[in-house]
Amino acid sequence: MHLLLGSLRCKSTGAGQATAQAARRRGQVPLRALRDHRFCSFSHRKPTHQMTTLQKIAYTELNSRQKENYNFQKVAAHLADYGFNSLRLSDDWQGADFIACHIDGNMFLKVQLKGRLSIDMKYSGKDIYVAFCDQEIWYLYPHDEVRDLLLATGLMTGSKSWDDGGGYSWPYLSVQIKALLQTYAI
Q: Is residue 151 very low, low, confident or very high in pLDDT (cuts 50, 70, 90)?
């Protein structure tokens, strides 16, 4: 099917109607499908605000809210490669920033988006997955499974952050931790 652009005016006057009727006979769909003529007005004029080149942004210059939006878009794109549609939540729901729904209709992941590898007791027992990026590699891991794996290695045990606060995070991943997380890279 083809769309008619430019020559079509969504007015119910003779010339516009004749063009639309002729288009229907040729199997083309005119943009009149909106049925409300007030919203249709197409012309050959160039837009007044035209972006000529796209410029990449510097992630480090974004504020925290912008970084969260940016990270959501990035991880959602990666999850799409695995058949997931990601739905952003306006506020945390059961510890999740977004829900990833698989195309099979049977798998739904509650995902918490982080800026680094993080373990926190407040996510324990909630069936939460955590997503973060390190050196342009995205990781998605089941929180409780990785918590237990890291505790077994002794990497958090004995730290004030974990023992007193119930949380631990790594600003950078060591070679040892990268090896542990390799199966969670997406």
A: confident
Name the pTM for this structure: 0.67
How far apart are alpha carbons 52 and 152 in whole angstroms? 54
Contact of 117 with 134, CB cutoff 8 Å? yes
Question: What domains sit in the chain, N to C, each tagged with a CATH number?
Answer: 1-51 (no CATH), 59-184 (3.40.1350)
| Residue 102 token pair | 């698989």
- From residue 185, give the alpha-carbon distance in Å to each of 52, 62, 92, 136, 139: 36, 25, 24, 11, 4
DSSP assignment of 5-31, as one string? -SS----SSHHHHHHHHHHHHTT-B-G
Identify whether the C-beta of residue 85 lies closer than 8 Å to the C-beta of residue 101.
yes
Instruction: List, for residues 23-73, the tens digit of each pLDDT value.
Output: 556 655 555 444 444 545 555 666 666 667 888 999 889 998 898 889 999
